[in-house]
Amino acid sequence: MTVPTPPTPRGLRRVALASLVGTAIEWYDFFIYGTAAVLVFAPQFFPGSSDLAGTLAAFSTLAVGFLARPLGGALMGHFGDLVGRKSMLVLSLLLMGSATFAIGLLPTYADIGVWAPILLVVLRFLQGFGVGGEWGGAVLLAVENAPPGKRGFYGSFPQMGVPAGVILSNSVFLLILATVGKQGFIDWAWRLPFLGSIVLVAAGMLIRAKIGETPEFAETRDQGLRRNPLLTVVRDNPRQLLLAGGTFLANNAIGYVMIVYMLSYGTKTLKLSQNTMLTLVLIASAVWLVTLPAFSALSDRVGRRPVFLGGGLVLLAWSIPFFLLLDTKTIPLMVVAVVITALGLSATYGPQAALFAELFDADVRYSGASLGYQLGAIFGGGFAPFIAAWLQGTTGSSLWVGAYLTALSLISFVCITVLRGRERSTVEATPQLV
């Protein structure tokens, strides 16, 4: 039997870089779609609709990506447990990059009629499928290579890919808007972020090609893998899967409301400029990026659940004040709104990688972690921008959106209070979950 060799310090740095860069590229691809859905897809792919109907239609295509994510997570998680983490990470990046590049070439409704939104939905589905398999593999790459006692910190690197992807995507949109103006952006320049992603994907592929399998996967492979890890984890771990998904509802919904819906709300309801709203998202994402590893490292010392619970309380208490401050249209107060939200997101997202890995045995861990994550994503962030837009449009009040997010925060808070790790997990779980 092969004895797994722990990675060297240089190897650890390479793993951390591969997990961060790869996920940042994947999330850049995923998020530029969300930003474009707010700024350009309604008139380009759903013309003739009312402003609200066009926005809802664009957000509906956004949700399609979330519907595909559990499928990608299930299938790639299954094969990631069978043939290895690395191959699925390469496949997910290739699939996401190809779909994103194709969106940049897509004809609009004026060019090919109803086929334009149909093809947009198909490509969004492929994006969702790719990113569905990305998270679990990137997380396990980091966590399973991490030294004992630092799994939370190393697990934060793929998590940082989310705010890094937001910063990269919004910075690109701000640069293009400043260069070509609003009309030039709507007419043609919106395609540039999608087409340019092919360069990032190529760089990510080169980085990931240099990494190997994790020591824990190598060990389970030598001992004999389960023939059907997906079926096994669903049959043996239904409670962990459902509770893991529940812990992620609030974080994902509030994150997408801030990243995607807030752009629409700020420009169409509050009548603020696109640059102002994109800048607010950038500020929130920068705070999220910087504080995320700090909360993750803290979870190595005090446990995952205490950090999660603290962040959950912030999200629970802040969902309604968040919109009250946005509604003032006073920039300093709006900055306060997004910064405090970002702190709550960091505390409930940073330790998540290690927490989800600690719930499942190594031979079903890719399947289990991916499914738990994507269940929370589809019922949390998948429909959040659509529901938020519908609530605001039908009631005329942002407080109903805040109430919706408060309800999800309560569900997530309850889930994390009852979630426990598995002592049989080969990842050191018990000392850190209690």
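(the above was protein one; protein two follows)
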Amino acid sequence: MQFRPIERPDNSFQQSVTAEAIEAMCRRAFGSNAIPCSAVELGNGMYNNTYRIDLGDDRRVILRVAPEPARQYRIERELMRNEYASTPFLASISRMIPRTLAADFTHEIIDRDYLFQTMLDGVSGPEGIGQYPQSEWTTFFRQMGEISRSIHAVRGDRFGPVAGPGFGTWAEAVTAFFIDLVADLDDAGLDSADVHEVLAAVEKYQAVLNEVTEPRLLHGDLWTVNVMMATDAPEPTITGVFDNDRTSWGDPDSDWPVFMAAKKPGTERDAFWETYGQRPSTAAAARRSLLYLAKHIGAIRLERHRLGNADAVPETYEQMRNVLGQLRA
């Protein structure tokens, strides 16, 4: 088998598996006669290790391998199992997401979860949208709003990650997230004092959070980098959605695509709201939005640390100070 892993420093978060392990995974998933011709690691993801596997006879599949359990943050624990559990709830966009061909969470071959998926057609979102003039990007963001709205329309019976743990109230789910975030920051050697203050605000505004009584499906990571686009289409056209591993049940206003769409007002992203609808404008919703913003900033801080992007970590402290100032007011 031709094997092309990505060479990384020994201390990198992402660590490739061996060619022998990939061959064993293929045999388990597709039978003892399955001998891959090649395995090429793809570099566009920042969490799982992802490989394009050629099984011969013009059959190509995607292999995704999760980090070792000990390397996973509490706020990102067992994301691959979460994605596996979420697939039936993403039925409204099932035509756009990859199909799982095989999954193995036994850790009998390697001490990591892994699964095989079908390959999505098209080109990555960043590559695809760059092929169109910026004036046409509004079409892309309208589609993003439509996809987000269809996901958020799905109702659940509890709050929290799709695979669990589940919570009876939204305040309990938000509290649990920030408790885990503080512990992750402490383990990483990062100052968590500002997140402790946010956690105190979460406790203070329990009633405001619990105005959200109906759990809705959240994607958790839907934006440009996690979609595929049609090639040579007359206008930007989203054809696929992948990396669906951060799904949860909660308040749609807390979801990642809502955060990203609101991040640059007055740009092409405003087209998102044309199909998604407008955000709630009550005082309670504004208070919740500040807590959601703190949630995103804290997760970004951890991710930058994990990726070794130390120069970008201090910015998150300034952003959190701004949020805390508004919460105090």
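Reviewer note on protein two: The mean pLDDT is 96.
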